[in-house]
Amino acid sequence: MVQRFYHYTSIETLFKIINSKKLRFRNLTEMDDPDETQSLEFKNIGKWNFISSWTSLRDELVMFQSYGGLDGVCISLPELPFYTENIVPFEDNPKFDKDNNMILFEKLKLTTGFNYYTNKYNVLFYPNEVQKLDIEYTNEKEKLYPKIITYNGSQYVFSGTKMGKYKDRQWSFQKEVRYTIQVTPFYPELLLKLNPEDPGSAFISGKIEYNPPFSVIDIPVSLEGMEVVFGPKVPDYEYKMSSKEIYDLVPNVKISKSNIRVR
């Protein structure tokens, strides 16, 4: 059975998603837990992680109150509703001279949308696809502030997947599921510093030295199987008007009103 996850937001944002057919990933620095961007070594290294926050909770009062508002919506989509494509990264990027073998990539399977940012901003996405991450709630300091740089005897290794994976137990009511994107600066000036025996060091220093060249990442998304639950304080006239518009824009969408009773 296909898993479904839920995203609480405003009606305005719902229509932005529907009209653009894209999901917006925000920087980890913009998430509700201000400590998430910290590792054992660095205060703000999570700035290269981008997040779209979802939950396993459907039609939940506290989630409407915290994120969508009681006059907002709860959106549902099947798990990992993203497209992929097989392309050569940086192939259309004029800053990389392929004739001089400045960069050598084979064709890779990437989440659709990544290559736009690769060519425009000189960044690399690894893993190559959007990842699903079930948040683990903990009070263990070594997980909340993980060690992300290790030395394996020959080179330094950056473990970016540890960022954004753990949250303090005070947030456990969210039952959060995240879609995550990890970005690495791949600037020509970093490649000039690259040591073939320790290639990771150049990119680790880039993550420390530079800030991301964008604050959000918009990724194409399939709306097939979408469900929309309108919040308990959405007026009937707005529910009917918005529902009609959504039915016209999204095939096979399921629309309902919240079962939550409030004054």
What is the fold's blueprint, element by element?
Layout (H helix, E strand, L loop, with lengths): L3 E6 L1 H10 L1 E6 L21 E7 L5 H8 L4 E6 L5 E4 L20 E4 L2 H8 L1 E3 L5 E4 L1 E3 L2 H4 L4 E3 L4 E3 L7 E3 L7 E10 L2 H5 L7 H10 L6 E5 L6 E4 L5 H14 L4 E4 L6
Parallel strand pairs: 9-12, 15-16
Antiparallel strand pairs: 1-4, 2-3, 2-14, 3-13, 4-15, 5-6, 7-13, 8-13, 10-11
Walkthrough of the structure:
With 263 residues, this protein is an alpha+beta fold. It has one domain (4-257). The chain is 22% helix and 29% strand. It contains 7 helices and 16 strands. The chain has helices at residues 11-20, 61-68, 114-121, 141-144, 188-192, 200-209, 236-249, and strands at 4-9, 22-27, 49-55, 73-78, 84-87, 108-111, 123-125, 131-134, 136-138, 149-151, 156-158, 166-168, 176-185, 216-220, 227-230, 254-257. Strands 2, 3, 7, 8, 13 and 14 form a 6-stranded antiparallel beta sheet that branches. A hairpin with a 4-residue loop joins strand 10 (149-151) and strand 11 (156-158). The longest helix has 14 residues, at 236-249. The two termini are 37 Å apart.
What attributes characterize this protein structure?
single chain; 263 residues; alpha+beta; four-stranded mixed sheet; 7 helices; 16 strands; globular
Summarize the structure.
By secondary structure, the protein is α+β, with helices and mostly antiparallel strands.
Number of strands: 16
Mass-distribution shape: globular
Count of discrete structural domains: 1
The proportion of residues in beta strands is 25-35%
Low-confidence sequence ranges: none
Average predicted local confidence, pLDDT: 89
Major beta sheet, specifics?
A: 6 strands, antiparallel
**Oligomeric state of shown chains:** single chain
